[in-house]
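Researcher: We are triaging several targets before committing to wet-lab work. For this one, the compound of interest is zinc ion. I'm pasting the protein sequence and the ligand SMILES. What I need is the predicted three-dimensional arrangement of the protein with the ligand bound, expressed as structure tokens, so it can go straight into our comparison scripts without reformatting.
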Amino acid sequence: MTDRRRGLSRRQFISGTAAAVAAVPFAAALRLDAQSQAGGARDIGLINGRIHTMDRAGRVVSQVLIRNGRFAAVGNTVVRRGGGLTVVDLKGRTVIPGIIDAHNHIVLVGNRPGWHTPLEHVLTIPDAIAALKARAASVPSGEFVTTVGPISAMQFDERRLPTLTELDAVGRPVYIQAAQGGTRTNSEGKTWLEARGVTVAADGTIAGQAAGLALQTLRKTLLTPDTRKRTALNALQYYARLGITTHRDSGAFHADEPATGIASENTYTMHAPFHALNREEQMPARLRIDFLHQDSPTANPPLPTLSQRLRNSFPRFGNEWLKTGGIGEFTGGGVDGLRAIARAGWRAEDHALNLNGATTLITNRETVNREIPITDLRWVISHVPEFPAELANRAHALGMGVLVGWGPLRTGTNVGPQYRTLFTHGIRVGYHSDGGDITVINPWLNFYTMITGRNLAGQSILGEQTLTREQTLQLATTANRWFIWEDDLGSIEPGGHADIVVLDRDYFAVPEEDIKKISSVLTVVGGRVIHNDGVL
Ligand SMILES: [Zn+2]
């Protein structure tokens, strides 16, 4: 989330000059077609894989049997052909459990106007244009191809967004609003926006307040229940292709009407497209929903929205595909709000942007805990760029956990989080991208930074505070169970939900620069084949 209240300025995020990273050969175009539609659960046997179970023993096995949406058997001789079983020879491919992103803004992404086209898998301008052109082929003439949010100038070798001229090759009006790096349109988009009072520079740049007006105009004009549902489905499919099988959404800033802010939506209606997909049994991934609240400290009666939420909804309620979670990423009611959440027995999450912020959050929780115990409620602080051992001790004593990630677009030196220190501390630590509006959701871009200590421009930002590949994956799988309060996700073990990702390359062995390029060739969620790149 981005907000005036957050301490990071845009400037801190924007990349300066930087070493070039290796170009990425353009992988398959976005597959948002019928092939990747969610169908029913299938019984599947995977053989000849390098299957990293992420179980306690850290077993790597060659076979797994999926029946009725769950893992039925895991080992080296557990798959027998016959009985309607689909057997897939993985030919030595690397397999991991479905990735859990324990805090992102996928619901915002699912409500973007136009034919929102995620570009987090492309790392050069020509690849971005090719992906947009591939998308345009299925977009009616004259309709907007958009990319709003999880895209950054820093991700491209060129360290810039595409130009108006480059975007003209897409053949449709194009609108790109980057998490960091500006807003851009092409000639057709410029004509359309200018006709509606939006100032667009000759080079297609839309600056300052004009960008807010542009986004608001696109929202007012283009959003319908059907387009939102299409975009929500596309977004979940896209990230399933990148290996995410469970998202916990951490909300938006509430706006009754179409808003100018990239992190704003109507927080009472924005889940509707996901509910629609769930009703139609079309969910390509699991969604857990947190509720963000920001009540005014002077409101009378106090806590007007939070108190109604706690009275009229249920935490952790829903089905396996879509469930409510807790309050976050802002609890928004100060100590009184925390008291109300504790009394209701809900989970609470706030983010911390610096040491002062984190210290205040912990102190407030200690105050509440003296009156109403929170130690069993799994409260969370996310981001935690600065979180020394003394603070981790205090949070740990409150039964709390911290979410780390939030990193590949950041700049500076030793900007945190202190991955290595926290990993070995003993406090619960999980992974979150926080992507969707100010940063990227693609787990491989995030993992790249956690492992190498470098941002997407190749600059060293973490010092020694890096993790191994195994530790990183552990945070995004088994460690995140505690954070989403579900023990049958995040590993490949008998009885667990059959969420599994077959990778296009070996995460554990590829050169570091190639971690950014990883994607899935086969994603199965609850036994449903969500993404299949010709493997099955
Ligand atoms: Zn967030």
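Researcher: Any quick observations?
Model: The pocket of zinc ion is lined by residues 1, 103, 105, 250, 329, 434 (CB under 6 Å).
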